[in-house]
Structure formats: C-alpha cells, structure tokens
Amino acid sequence: MFEPQSVTAKVGETITWINKDDEPHTVRSDAGLFASAALDTGETFRFRFDKSGTYHFFCSIHPKMTGTIVVH
Ligand SMILES: [Cu+2]
Q1: How far is the CA of 64 from the centre of ligand 1 (A)?
Q2: With 8 labelled, which of 16, 49, 61, 68 sits at a CA distance of 20 to 30 A?
Q3: Residue 4: is the preceding peptide bond cis (ω within 30°)?
C-alpha cells in the first residue's frame, strides 16, 4: 500500500515515492499525468506538481493500491 495514502503539497513541490517493499511497484496517475517504471526495492520516483488540484494515482501492478496527492 501507499503510505501515507494521502499527501498534501504546495504548488511547485516535488513528491518522492520510495519502494520500501520487497516486490516491484509502480506509480501511475489516473489521468495519465505521470507514470513510473517498475520500481524495485529502494528505488524512487519523483514528480513535481506545478498546478493545484487533486491527483489520484495507483500501482499498475496492483491496481488496488491507490493514493492521492492534494496540491494547493
Ligand atoms: Cu504495487
């Protein structure tokens, strides 16, 4: 699962996801705004949010893994 599942950020901030699990995961925006490759243990993905809004994302390998970034 994504932990925390919901994160609040300010416009212009960069969010970093880190895979702390022992199997691969991805980070993919529901709206297609960003998509990582498969992240192995310890690998990271970064995305900078330049516009306010609510951004939902999921793991394309385990689609029940979901999360939200709220940018304002
Ligand atoms: Cu996953």
Answers
A1: 8
A2: 61
A3: yes
Radius of gyration of the chain (CA): 11
The first and second tokens of residue 47, run together, are 């995305």
Structural domains of the chain, count: 1
Q: What is the pLDDT of residues 10-52, one digit of tens each?
A: 999 999 999 999 999 999 999 999 999 999 999 999 999 999 9
Residue 16 within any structural domain of the chain: yes
User: Is 1 part of any domain?
Assistant: no
Place of tokens 């969010």: 15
Q: How far apart are CA 9 and CA 13, in angstroms?
A: 6
Q: Which domain holds residue 63?
A: 6-71
- Cα of 48 vs centre of ligand 1, distance in Å, is 21
Structure tokens at 12: 């212009």
